[in-house]
Specification:
The complex is a heterodimer of chains A (291) and B (262).
Chain A: E1 14-17, H1 23-27, E2 39-43, H2 44-47, H3 53-64, E3 67-70, H4 84-97, E4 102-105, E5 108-110, E6 115-120, H5 126-143, E7 148-150, H6 165-176, E8 179-183, H7 184-194, H8 198-204, E9 210-215, H9 238-250, E10 256-259, H10 268-286
Parallel strand pairs in A: 1-2, 1-10, 2-3, 3-4, 4-7, 7-8, 8-9, 9-10
Antiparallel strand pairs in A: 5-6
Chain B: H1 3-18, H2 30-54, H3 56-62, H4 64-77, H5 92-99, H6 105-120, H7 130-137, H8 142-147, E1 150-152, E2 157-163, H9 165-173, E3 183-195, E4 198-205, H10 206-216, H11 221-229, H12 235-255, E5 258-261
Antiparallel strand pairs in B: 1-5, 2-3, 3-4
Helix pairs in contact in B: 2-4, 3-4, 3-6, 4-5, 5-6, 10-11, 11-12
The chains are: A alpha/beta (291), B alpha+beta (262).
Amino acid sequence: MQTSHDTIAPFGGFGLGLRRTHYEDFLERGDGPDVPVDFVEVISENYMIEGGRQLRILEAVREKHPVIIHGVSMSIGSAGGLDADYLDKLKVLERRIDPLWVSDHLCWTRTSAHNSHDLLPLPLTGEALDAVCANIDRAQDHLGRPMLFENPSSYLTFPEDELTEWEFLSEMARRTGCYLLLDVNNIYVSSQNHGFSADDYLAGLPLERVRQIHLAGHDPATEHRDIIIDTHDREVCDAVWALYAKAMRMLPGPVATMIERDDNIPPLGELLAELERARGLADDVREPVPA
Amino acid sequence: MSAADLAQQQAAFMAQVLNENAALPAGWGNSQAAGMQVYRGNYRSALMDALGDTFERVKQYVGDAPFAQVAAHHAITNPPASWTIDDAGAGFEDSCAQLFGNNPEVAELAWLEWTMLGLATAPDAEPLNGEDFGSATAEFGDEDWGAMKLVLAPRTAAREVAHDLTAIWNSLGEGGAELGEFTLEGPGGCLVWREGEQPVFIMVNAEQARAFRAVQNGASYGEICMVLAGDNAGEQDIADAAMRAGAMLGGWLNDGLIIGLA
């Protein structure tokens, strides 16, 4: 059941994920200009700690930039419910940082006994939807704010699926009042892996609920492997840029855009150049067409 | 499918991820089998990477292939349960002890790296400086000294060790160490704490490691002196022990390990 939370105002900035490799870039700018990003996204779990250097760095970065906290371990799809300790620690971080928003993934990561530390796929069924919505209600109530949930990349579908992923996400947002983090690369990866149309996916979503877009690179299929893997270890490919441009044309209002890189992390300048490409594409598609 | 069915399905899926010999669920075809291979690969590589990052020096010391073996053994015998992958290294010292039985220094090195990881994210605490300590104890009589308890900085740790961990650490920093050349002549100790933001350690004697652990377990200063004096101690033994306890206390204060008195 949806409970009342504040809404999240649209924000059309361009940002990067804060990774250890770039700590010094963000901190040691002296009197020079800050890193030219409109926001910084951090992996929540890396900062759900009690003290030490990492927290101090995050607080220093927060003084210069708005921060989004993005989780990978809430396990919103767990049939056994959410981990109370996790929620408490996330709330401490949320209070400490006052982020633009808090996000996680439409997936599950753990059972009562084990944690996979991977974003595992949910069967797209009514029962799974009920479990997800109950968990989102609990998380949003605990944090006292609405969250964003990201569409995952997936490598298998279940024979018992009853809904498409976009139908599942739409109903999830409608029932819980949560917002969507649209990972365009994940749409591309899953559409190729499972043979659905990325256009249908975009057309089927409640785009007014989207507040952020993720862009990332993936490992293409090979002669020996039909599956595309979401690796975040290389540049965004042209097909994903094209899908991003299409999404930007369809979205009814401003959204935040971020480049994700988690492996083979290049110097900051390369990521800023990639982010500049996103800015350019967004500007192009938002350019009013003269009469 | 009910919520109970979903829980059952997730438990079965997790079993598939953890155990590549587990039979696939009924109704699954080749596409699901291929997808499961990706999830299994992701799980293993995430764990191996996390253990490799946490136990960087153990990996360097034993070499990549033996490390991969102990990491795989650890992942199978201790599948992660915590929401943070940082906790995947809990118990790795025991896994090292099992697989490197002829090289017990590996388990000691694993303990050291694990302790330092914990210290890196420990709550921040302001050390008690010598001046504050002097003020707090200025009016102490003998009984007050005997009853005094020390509050230690969070997650500081000590243990008895049989190998020169400083020598291993430094030789790895210099590019390589031979297994097994670091045995101490007698029992030693290792003390680990955080200096500002940086976890650090020093080798101490075994007596100091025991005393530190006694403090952690709630022993008073007087009790520490008696522990150091040993059983059937005479007056001189007790006086000597008090001198040694005083020296230890001075060192701990100086290094910022003490944050208060209780």
